[in-house]
Every structure is written in C-alpha cells, then in structure tokens.
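Problem: given the chain below (282 residues), write out its structure.
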Amino acid sequence: MENAFKLLLSCPSGLSSSQVSVKFDESYDRVPHPDINLDSSISEIWDQKVQQSTSLFNGKKFRYGGHSGLEPHVCLHLGLTDYRTFMGTNLNPSWERFLVASEDDCKQCQHTSSPLGNGAIVETSDNMILVLQRSNNVGEFPGYLVFPGGHPEPEEVGITSHKCENSELRNSKISQEMFDSIIREVVEEIGVPASTLNDPLFIGISRRVLNVRPTAFFFIKCNLESTKVQQLYSSAQDGFESTKLYIIQPGKLESMASKMPGCHRGGFALYKLMLECGKNIK
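Solution.
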C-alpha cells in the first residue's frame, strides 16, 4: 500500500502560474469525525509526539479540498489545517477509521487533515532528473527515494485563519505561493540558486493510498549541468533532510520510482504523462 497511488488531477501539457487559480474557503476545511473518541485521539497523539520530540512545531498547512476545471485552466479548492491534525488523522495508526466509504475523493477524506504537499521533477541542462534519498531522521518515509519537495506555506502569505477583507487578493497570493513554494523547496533541498530554475509547470496532483496523502507536482527545468548541481548539493540549506542526491537518466527513472512512496510514484506517473503529451504535440 505504501507504493500505491491515485491520480487526482493530471495536467500533462504543464500549466503556468497564470493557468492555476485557487479558491480558499472554510468549506474545504476538515469536517470533525462524528466519533468523539476517535477525534480526541488527535490531541492524544500530538501530546505523545511532543513529549518524544520538543522540536515539533504545529504550523498551518493548506488542506486539499478538490479542484474544478480542466486544462488549460484549473482551480484548486483549499482549506486550512495544521501539522497537529495531520499527525492525528492521516498519520494516525487508525487512519483508515477516519475515511468515509465513498467514490468521491473529497467526501472519502473529509475527516482527514490532508495537507497539500508539493514535489518537483527537476531536469538539468544535460537532461538528467534529480532524486533524493531521505534522511533517517525525517518524520515520513525515512530512507526512501523521493523527488525534492515539501509544502506551500500559509504563513508565507500571511494566512493564519479564514478572516480576510479581500478574498480575491488572498486567493491570488495563495495561487502564487503554490509556485513560489516549490522553487523554495528545490533551492533549500538541492542547493541550486533560484536564478538557475525556470518557472515551474504544474502537472497534477497524486495521492498516496497509504494515509491518503495528496501532493501537487511540478516540472522545473534547471539551466545547470548535473555535475554542477551535485557540487552545490553538498552545501544545501536543508541538506540534513536527505543523505544522497541521485542524478538519473529519464529512462532509468522507472526502477527508482518503484522504491518511492505512493505520492511520489504518482509524481513520476504525472511526469510520464507530460512526456507522452509532448511527443503527441510534436
């Protein structure tokens, strides 16, 4: 199950920031579970985790609540959640009890935190793909192979609640944060300067079957050769989150993807659909 995934949205032509909008609304927030005892386990799990690691921080996250529209323009529906609720629902040992039996993805996951993560398929100027091996000290999937990524951050655009006087401006800022955040993650995890990265292209959203974890994926072209990228990685700001940078030929990525968590395997599937779309256009 840890490798299984579901594609929630595929945009194989690759969408620019002007083609992706956001609707941020409390209607996309998590719905409390009717089982009070199950919902109370959220606090219990968080308290246990904090006792084990005092460095844990309960930051705000954007919650994935679905989407509307199709290429060439999509709108992401986002609510607000936090890391504490993520630990207590998606990462709860009893996470499946939070799910609703439904074919509708949003209804199925309405009681989970489901923060929207992000990931990037980064291609160097000599057409190689970057893959990281996660440190054994990270919270999710220690030691696994992944694409660089993390989360868009509400607090980067001044959001701590749904209170706002100008919702249109707020939605615009959040939409831009979707693209700005993945650049930040690549810079911090790989060590390349932001100036060497082209504008990201949004290629879709995959969801890991295990823990129903959604992740938005982007394709980013880097204008540095892979040897230079490897050199810069040694001084990456968040290099502690990984132990090794693999530089892979696209044709050999399939075997590595089989060792990735489901959401990142889904990212690879979205990348393959993008490549196929490019061939058809040519």
